[in-house]
Amino acid sequence: MVTKQATGSRTGPGPAPGQRHVRASKQRAAYPYTLYLPAAVVYLVIFLVPTVMAFYFALTRWTLFDSTFVGLDNFRDFFAEQNLRIGFANTLFYAVLTSGLKVVLGLLLGVLLTSKLRLRGFLRSVVFFPVLVSTVAVGITFSALLRPDTGLVNKALALAGIDGPDWLGDAGTALLSVALVDVWKGVGIATVIYIAGIMSIPRDYYQAVAVDGGNAWHRFRHVTLPLSWPATYSVIILSFIGGLRSFDLIWTMTRGGPGFTSDTIASIIYKQYQAGFFGLSTAGNVILFVVVTAIVVPLNYFLGKRQATL
Amino acid sequence: MRALKRFGVEGIALLLATAIFLVPFSFMLLTAVKDEVQSSDLDFAWPTSWPIVQNFVEVIEARDYVLLRAYLNSTILTVASVALIVVFAAMAAFVLQRRAGKIGSLANFLVLSGLIIPPAIVPTIWLLQALGLFKSLPGLILVEVAFGLSYAVLLFRAFVAAIPRELDEAAMIDGCTGLTLFFRVVFPLLKPVTITVILTTSVAVFNDFVNPLYFLPGDDNATVQVTLYNFQSQYNTQWNLLFMDIVLITIPPLLLFVFFNRKIVDGMTAGAIKG
């Protein structure tokens, strides 16, 4: 199966006819499709085959060793899960909130850290720091900081006379808290993307604004904001996909609780896998696949179109 | 007056950044060096005693030196998968950027799919089992490579676009084609973005928790992230050891960052984001 798949990807189109022939043969020699081969083999076997098989196994009752075809039963059961509707709404809320905040904060930090700030280098490292710590470690740390009684967050709030909630134990705040921690951890990447984007804006534009007598706001509004659009696009797409698939932080901090109030599609899938419902879990995976594709593909198209008209 | 105002803004920014980003880290460090009783308060108090060495030794010795085995496993996993991702993705990105056509658009589509599609976990387990690679380090390496390729290809492709084709043609006149053209001429030029890919991918693989949990269960095969999970259940209340473990496994990515800090943005500015 392996070799078949691999050679399949190598078979190029026949030689182009007519005047293009020379260029085509030159291309064939300089950029042979064999360079695709290693990546293609691993990708096809380890990623694509399971993805395609998922569509079949989702329709079965499955123990890894043998499977009985049960039609759409798994999907019916999955949709009948009482927590699925919550999980669905949570996933969307989480993805929108985290990617939105990452765009806003990443842009602000990006502007701040490309300005003439003296402590720029230090601050850049500080903001990027959380990216280096594993999600599980971040989850454990914030679970401790967000404790209702001894946690630092509520102690600080108490100093200001505010009675903080039980962030992770309260149904109303659990998912929000996890999302904010996600932003804390991920905003460093967004910031680096924005820094790269802002630094590649030619200086001339800023000079033009200066000639017209513009101030810092004008520079931001008319140069930085529109010209860092490619960065915004990358941040939105990357963090939105990450948000829709989010699992490890939620799992470490709340396990989907209290009750099912912070469950996302990914955590429901994991729970079903843990319980041994492999077919059901795979059906969940297929649903997640459909949801992600249905949202990201149009979003990508829409954002890409906006980029082209700029 | 203006200078004063700017100074004020800088001061506030610094203060905020420190509070928001550094306080959690100081909390980790403080808890890691406390004794067991005091650490269980999970507060921000100054340590009354400093059993640093003792905590360190206890974490290392726990569960028959599982942390050392985990370090070894994680190192092998990270080095092997990052090396494969870098070479495979750079090769693919090179052809993808240079050669259009039906195969090119198909490859393009697959790269984007890899970024968007959530991996089908249980069918992947089933497949690895059929290949005899389930619960093995090579199996997990292949999984990390397959899941990490797309992002790396995107970064590389944008960077290849910035390398002039004339260079390829000059090399071809000198008789370089295919593999030699790529490895002798193009790959060395990709150094800035290669560093970006190495850094981001190795941090992602080293810190990965989900895939080892699914594909490499068991104490013998533990990776460093999974040791946190073990510590949590075994040392339910020994928070000092748990945080000592966190500190210890955060050191490698931190070192990597210290060495490559400045190059990350360079690699991204050089082309990746313009794409």
Automatic annotation (TrEMBL), chain B:
PROSITE patterns: ABC_TM1. Residues 71-260 form the ABC transmembrane type-1 domain. Pfam families: BPD_transp_1. Keywords: Cell membrane, Membrane, Transmembrane, Transmembrane helix, Transport. The keyword DNA-binding does not apply. The chain crosses the membrane at residues 12-33, 76-96, 108-128, 140-160, 181-206, 239-260. It comes from Nonomuraea polychroma. It is found in: Cell membrane. Belongs to the binding-protein-dependent transport system permease family. This is Carbohydrate ABC transporter membrane protein 2 (CUT1 family). GO terms for cellular component: plasma membrane. GO terms for biological process: transmembrane transport. Signal peptide: none annotated. The keyword Nucleotidyltransferase does not apply. It is a multi-pass membrane protein.
